[in-house]
Amino acid sequence: MRTPLSTIAPRLLLGFSLILGLSSIRAGAASAQDLRDQYHQAPRDTVSQEVYDGWKQFNLNCARCHGEDVQGTTIAPHLILSLKPDGPVNTKQLFMQTVCAGRPDKGMPSWCALGMEPATIDKIYAYVKGRSDAKLAPGRPALKPGA
């Protein structure tokens, strides 16, 4: 016995609609990944655990004065420039000493007196130096796979 065309046609139409609908959903999902605004960018840089921890510590302890992405503010210097070869803090030793002792006359606390470990300062240096040397772009870095 044959099925009447009037019952097959709606089933075919429904099947084609589902197929077309799924392909448009997939296309929409692909384009959603391409749509990113300035606040939700994918990380541009992958870094070691040390540098990533330095980024976190910088943001926890230093960014409020030295600015997001190490770019300075009206109350604290631009560390990207400070760590350049001709900058006022142009060696790792000088950076470690400055952070540990602080600059009380300029309002910078002594981080070692506040309990910051030299290993933490070392990680912050790794991040700030990466920004100063233009090896890291602004924004949150990502951990290297396996780091």
Describe the protein's architecture and organization.
The longest helix is centred in the N-terminal third of the chain and has 30 residues, at 5-34. The protein has helices at 5-34, 49-61, 63-66, 79-82, 92-101, 118-132; strands at 46-47, 142-143. It folds into 2 domains: 1-35; 46-143, Cytochrome c-like domain (Cytochrome Bc1 Complex, Chain D, domain 2, Orthogonal Bundle). The mean pLDDT is 84. It contains 6 helices and 2 strands. The chain has 147 residues and is mostly helical. The termini are far apart.
Compile the SSE list and pairings.
Layout lengths: L4 H30 L11 E2 L1 H13 L1 H4 L12 H4 L9 H10 L16 H15 L9 E2 L4
Parallel strand pairs: 1-2
Helix pairs in contact: 2-6, 5-6
Computed over alpha carbons, the radius of gyration is 27 Å
Report, as a whole number of angstroms, the end-to-end distance: 67 Å
The coarse overall form would be rod-shaped
DSSP strand content: under 5%
Number of DSSP strand runs: 2
Notable features of this structure?
147 residues; Cytochrome Bc1 Complex, Chain D, domain 2; 6 helices; mainly alpha; two-stranded parallel sheet; 3% strand; 2 domains
Summed up:
The chain is mainly alpha-helical and 147 residues long. The chain contains six helices and two strands, in the order αβαααααβ.
